[in-house]
Design brief:
Largest sheet: 6 strands, mixed
Number of domains: 1
Mean pLDDT: 92
Order of helices and strands: EHEEHEEEEEH
Number of strands: 8
Oligomer: single chain
Distance between the termini: 56 Å
Number of helices: 3
Radius of gyration: 17 Å
């Protein structure tokens, strides 16, 4: 699927996007996540973009005292909707470009920015990308868990 950059920017800025927020998953650690924990996220995301919509689908996860958001967005570059003002720095707004699938993992304990962002191929190819997206998501959650453990250990040493 392709979209004109100007149309993409206008839809996001006008909040004319399909927003999907799934029920929160609560776990104590990454190992408690079921193998198919992203299945609903993929299905809802694919259903919305197959109707020609610009989409943001969110799977909240609560892990111990850490809130994590796994977000799938359609995009034209690896920037979240929150950074829509920067998109025209990379394209002529009259260009027509492929609509990509972006994975955004949000957590204050992930890294300094609190974000992991990766773009995958054209949204119409999502079925071929799901295993990569799940693997990248699990790596990010594992990093969050490791960072939380390090912080906990350093707090214990300071006591």
């Amino acid at each position: 699927m392709e979209i004109k950059v100007k149309d993409f920017i206008n839809q996001v800025e006008a909040d004319e996007i399909t927003k999907i927020v799934l029920d929160k998953i609560e776990v104590n650690e990454i190992g408690e996540l079921k193998d198919n924990f992203m299945a609903s996220l993929f299905a809802d995301f694919e259903n919305a973009f197959s109707k020609g919509k610009v989409v943001q689908a969110v799977q909240p996860i609560e892990m111990v005292d850490e809130s994590i958001e796994i977000v799938l967005e359609t995009g034209v570059i690896n920037l979240p909707f929150a950074n829509i003002k920067r998109v025209d720095n990379f394209f002529d707004v009259e260009d027509t470009v492929p609509l990509l699938t972006n994975l955004i993992v949000i957590s204050p304990s992930l890294n300094a920015s609190g974000l992991f962002i990766r773009s995958y191929s054209d949204t119409s190819n999502l079925k071929n990308e799901t295993s990569k997206i799940v693997a990248d998501t699990l790596l990010s959650i594992k990093q969050i868990q490791e960072n939380l453990k390090k912080n906990e250990d350093s707090n214990l040493q300071e006591s």
